[in-house]
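Hi R.,

Quick one: here's the asparagine synthase (glutamine-hydrolyzing) sequence you asked about.
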Amino acid sequence: MCGIAGLIDFSKSTNSEQLLQMAKSMGYAQRSRGPDGSGQWADPESGIALDHRRLAIIDLTEEGVQPMTSRSGRFVTAYNGEIYSYRDLREELEKTSTFQGWRGHSDTEVMLEAVEQWGLEKALKSFSGMFAIALWDREERKLFLARDRMGEKPLYYSTQGNTFLFGSELKALMTYEGFEKKVDRNSLSSYLRYHYVPAPHTIFKNVHVLMPGTWLSVSHDGTISEPAEYWSLLDSAREAESKIFTAPDSDIIDTLEDLLLKVVEREMISDVPLGAFLSGGIDSSLIVSLMQQCALSPVKTFTIGFDDEAYNEANDAKLVAQHIGTEHTELYVSPKDALEIIPSIPQIWDQPFSDASQIPTHLVSRMTREHVTVALSGDGGDELFAGYNRHFRGCSLWNKLEHFPVSLRSIMAEAILRVSPETLNELFDMLEPIIPEKLRMRLPGQKLHKLAHVMDAESASDYYTALTSNWLNPETTVMSGREIVSPFQNYSMQPSTKNLTAWMQFMDAATYLPDDILTKVDRAAMAVSLETRAPFLDHEIVEFSQRLPMHLRMQNGQGKYALRKILHKYVPKNLIERPKMGFGIPIDNWLRGPLREWADNLLSPERLADDGYFNGRTVQKAWHEHLSGEKDNHYRIWNILVFQSWMDHWDVS
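And here's the predicted structure, written out as tokens:
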């Protein structure tokens, strides 16, 4: 896991020393991604320079240092990530007639040799892993950029004047002297809806994210190709629709377990200490259970806890760890610990990103890094195996709601919204003894208010969009902003399945997973130089999950049925079968308490008017509703606050 950056000066007016210094400055901006070393390479005749920041994981010797040149001298790379299948590829490459031997044992060298022997696209298709690759072809004088299938590793790029820039993080591009920090109001509108800017867009005009599963080329003369797919989640989903498994359930589940074991064992390869995040939920508990099957000693596991039981998973994780037999470390953090992270959010997530679980994710990453350099996670389990409430409860509810007139549903929604979330929470607490366990939920008042906002949807697509939205009408909040057309509005970018759960799963995996979950984890962990790995996102598991019959995804009002059946072999049901909690913190209460003054300043009518981005009246109304407890608007308010503080940090006007 590392950080990469670079540039091409199309004018060829920059000498070698200047190119190297510019690349070095770009890399230094993201130095936490690679504290173990740095290197630069430049060719002034082509105007190209590369920077690499190294977090040494495999092959800690000098033979693993980058930028690395292929044996023939044709290719030079700065590469971020891990190719877990590199040992198998290494053996395969050794059989070719032109093979000349290895210098070290890094996956980088294997990647270069694969490109040399097979060409870029075939090589990319052969890689199992997470990566962002910058590859300079000295023969064709052309730069290739490529990103892994599911979007685990980030890669940004932009043309600024006569210079092409790229980097693992946006902050690397911002070091360029001529970089134009011009906010794209359309991106801002979409950010308010989703709390992230949907790829391939960024918060800035003329700056892009390379999409998962794609590559592009940039010639020394300034010709930039359109991104091309070497793998497509959509194609995989469409192909799976006609290949749903028909074998006995037990055979399908056994095959999935074997596949997961193979992938987990492969992703445990490391020359540095390795562990895992453990929340005590289905996904992380299963990953840790399988790790323990592959390990010769207790796996190191990590979790954080909060004194507020509504947000605390530490007790559950501890019980699971004790049963599996891991070497478990937990850290209880105070509101003060979490609040101290807030000023650093704009630096860590260098474009507006306001999923509030970013704070505990960073805290657990920081604690984990004190013990290990690599941590496996359960990310992807919800999207691929139907684990979100919307996949089962949400779909079940829509199947009922769509039979009622929209006008009647609107009346029902208004009735719910008349009762404050806190009052609804108190009511549910009183009724808890008579509520069936599978219908119990954490913070029911907030969830019912969210439900009320989606009840008047006119279609399943509108319903899903509302479920995944913060501001439901961001164009009325952002001045002169128009939302980016999303996959929800483009049927050519969607699978044809008529099953709403399968459709939601695809949409989550294609958008929410890379743009929110993986962005959150990558930045939170790399800010403390921790590599994270997500076994569920191996493309073999992704493709397998899409072929699961629906009854192995959901049964009896619960998702992730196949994963549960595997996990029950290792962990008793009573330790893991409980309402889904998520990974959050009480931002709603903090905004009314310790964050009140900070928020008041950023949301003042004068500040909003001076900035000119938001409709001050709309924002102030939402803020006062939240302060009074009339509504829980903390998601919406947090959206605005993160953007405002980001503007201040990066001096954006």
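The first strand starts at residue 2 and ends at 9.

Cheers,
M.
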